[in-house]
Amino acid sequence: MTQVIKVNLPYDLRTSSDNDVFYKTAHEEQKFILPYCNSCGQYFWPGAIICQHCGSKDVEWKEASGHGKIYSHVEGRFAFHPDIKEYLPIAICSVVLDEGPRVFGRLVNYGEIEKVPYDAPVHIVWLQDDERGCTIMGWEMD
């Protein structure tokens, strides 16, 4: 089972109503799902009713591994809004999933950001805010 970390988010950080199925499944079942095209056999992100690779409408949500490698990362150390100050520093990373798509999420338990290597293997960690009723992607190095 995927690790769940209880957090208090400053805002509801879910994106796009096209991804409601993703966020609902993450919050209720802690499953990592991605849109998958049955025509060309590729996963993609973000969610859509049409495959971004071939244009097919034969798309479904399918469970994925939740593993990938860091493509890039950045650490925020300065508050762009007073409500976020208590959450700093915060690292955001771009992850190339084993299935192909690139996603973004919070990097957790990373130590010093300067020592985080690019191409580091990572796995999904769910960041769950029960008060807001939402769950978002987090990533932790293997």
Biggest sheet character:
5 strands, mixed, barrel
Radius of gyration: 15 Å
- What gap, in angstroms, lies between the N and C termini? 15 Å
Mean pLDDT: 90
Number of strands: 8
Shape: globular
Number of H/I helices: 1
Extract low-pLDDT stretches: none
The helix/strand series, from N terminus to C terminus, equals EHEEEEEEE
Name the structural class: mainly beta
- Please list the strands of the largest sheet in the order they lie side by side: 4-5-6-8-7
Helix percentage range? under 10%
Beta-strand residue fraction: 35-45%
Set out the fold topology:
Layout: E1 4-6, H1 20-29, E2 33-37, E3 59-63, E4 67-76, E5 90-97, E6 102-107, E7 121-129, E8 134-141
Parallel strand pairs: 1-7, 6-8
Antiparallel strand pairs: 2-3, 4-5, 4-7, 5-6, 7-8
